[in-house]
Amino acid sequence: MARKEKNINLLPSYKPMEITLIKKDKTRTDLRNDLGISPSTLAKMSNGEFVALKVIAQICEYLDCKIEEVVEFVDKKKEDSV
Q: What is the pLDDT of residue 6?
């Protein structure tokens, strides 16, 4: 029997990662080349979609930063009302 997926109002934003990349003088291409992160995963991040926590951990380790310097959650309801 298929599970019904519950609507999630908190969505990931990877804007903090963009700032951290700039601070560390790195690019998304560096992530792809040095960590082997697939272009489709990077595309998901650009679109504010969920990616595996393992990928987030790899990025944190690579950039030597905390998780909140890579991803944050934004409330979809608040975003829609702005």
A: 77
pTM of the model: 0.84
The closest alpha carbon to 16, from 70, 73, 78, 75, belongs to: 70
Residue located via tokens 């930063």: 65
Q: Which among 39, 14, 40 has a CA at the least distance from the CA of 29?
A: 39
pLDDT tens digit sequence for 9-30: 899 999 999 999 999 999 999 9
The CATH number covering residue 51 comes to 1.10.260.40
Domain total in the chain: 1
State which residues form the domain around 15: 10-81
Residue 13: its H or E element: strand 10-13
